[in-house]
From TrEMBL:
<protein>
    <submittedName>
        <fullName>ATP synthase f chain, mitochondrial</fullName>
    </submittedName>
</protein>
<dbReference type="Pfam" id="PF10791">
    <property type="entry name" value="F1F0-ATPsyn_F"/>
</dbReference>
<dbReference type="InterPro" id="IPR019727">
    <property type="entry name" value="ATP_synth_F0_fsu_mt_fun"/>
</dbReference>
Length: 112
């Protein structure tokens, strides 16, 4: 009994990977009853003609980090520049903290 249920379950789900989930529902809703009984297929042909063809259009990145990533990290534009930017940022933070600490410890101006 279990082998029969397993076989039925495998057959039921084996063809699911061939049809995208939304497309299956769209074909059912776009196909008139006359077409499903072997009649005129013009509605189904029209449905497939309306499906976009080719690669999807590239979306433009929005946001500061997304634009930075697209410019320096991804694709043919990948470069060493982000590492240099990170070093400059760490250096600027270090200089700022060092200057603040120096001003706090020598507030009286004894050594200057």
């Amino acid at each position: 009994m279990n082998s029969v249920i397993g076989t039925v379950a495998r057959r039921a789900y084996s063809t699911r990977s061939y049809i995208p989930p939304n497309l299956g529902a769209a074909v059912k809703s776009a196909t008139p009853k006359a077409e499903s009984s072997g009649g005129d297929l013009s509605g189904l042909v029209d449905f497939y003609k309306r499906i976009p063809k080719g690669a999807a259009e590239a979306t433009k990145p929005s946001g500061l980090l997304a634009r930075y990533r697209a410019k320096y990290w991804e694709g043919e534009n990948a470069s060493f520049t982000p590492f240099i930017h990170a070093m400059l940022l760490v250096g600027a933070i270090h200089i700022g903290l060092h200057y603040k600490h120096h001003q706090d410890t020598h507030a009286d101006g004894e050594h200057h």
